[in-house]
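User: two proteins, same treatment. go.

Assistant:
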Amino acid sequence: MEITFYGHACISIATQGKTLLVDPFITGNPNAAHIDIMQLKPDYILLTHAHQDHILDAEAIAKNAGATIISNYEIASYYGAKGLPYHPMNHGGSWRFDFGTLRYVNAIHTSSFPDGSYGGQPGGFVLEADKNIYIAGDTALTFDMKLIPMRTALDLAVLPIGDNFTMDVHDAVHAADFVQCSRVLGYHYDTFGYIEIDHEAAQKAFSEAGKTLTLLSIGATLSV
């Protein structure tokens, strides 16, 4: 399984011969100016919630690639009404796709489209495929995370670490404990001033807790 970081909270996952793109916010991120979204050809686009910094490029990429959008009922239906292929989900539900099983799990955050319209409730995803991955989305630390390892032994947890809008590094260390995963990919950091972090301090915090935090440069890939 190959995971590529496209900045902010956008990653792609190549697994079982399919490519999943999560929360595409690329053209609005100056740090990702070298990424051409028209070169991205995902089979599926996963959206954790409706905020602009997670959906900005979803429609354009989906139209160009013919991708199916997977999200909560409200977000998926929003894109379905635009004529795009979609699969709606809701908290606690799972579905067996051709790339593996995906479960939509709780997140503590907000969710509205850029125009202020309702974007359903935010969530994260647990992916069971070649490897098992938890994609937390934008969230605070929550005891609900402890439910995840009751069903799924994780190989990687993708956790927000930028603070202010989500968990900070120290809460993310606790989140890794809750989901019983010592290998963490950090995201949702450094895009703008509110969420800039000290990389060395972040990695030290995880190391002192016996865990590994990976911080990828934009366009770099991690093998799981």
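Protein 2:
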Amino acid sequence: MKTILITGSSSGYGRETALHFHNQGWNVIATMRTPRPDVLPESDRLRIIELDVTKPDSITAAFEAAGPIDVLVNNAGVPSISVFEGTPMTRVREVFETNTFGVMATTQAVLPRFRERGSGVIVNVTSSVVLGDMPLSALYKASKMAIEGFTSSLALELAPFGVRAKTVEPGACLTTSFAAKATNGASPDELVPAPYAEFARKAMGEFTGQAVFTKESDVAKRVWEAVHDMTGQLQFPAGPDAVRLSRAK
């Protein structure tokens, strides 16, 4: 029986992916920065482990506790919707610490195991913002584009060892708390300098009002496909809006 470790599993894509793989008979290690046993079912095939991807000691402890795994899904991420001019550099660093450096750190932690064994899959969850030009996403897109480039080169390095690397690119999931978390508790006035106010209002209205969007289950299914793909496909758009952007690109 295979084992998957998923970061950021307390809600959204991570939680749904944990449920999907568990329902398919896999052993699941659901990691969370703040463990919440109530969000996933009790099962002898499902463990919840504390993991903060921005802390090296936490990464080391989590992988030691996890034991052997077959798949790593880097799903933990910090959302960001903002006008870049109004974004403090402290926020920029916070987003990159999780979305970019955290993914790299967990990946580096698992690579020796996968390489020595000659098998393993790494799936990095990015975003459909990498597929098109979208307003209010300069910071978020930069952090995710970095992982797209990282994964494409990583896949070439790992191929000789039988290890695969993929990206899953979710579209806009309006049923998650993405938009609320993306402001990081700041008011719109703090995030949007006055000259950008009208532009930002229109952009946010278009984002939250779109008729075609991604569901959590779309992402879980695409992660499943990415894990099992043997064709060499690198990118897996998830959700109808992401697929449409990918085709247009």
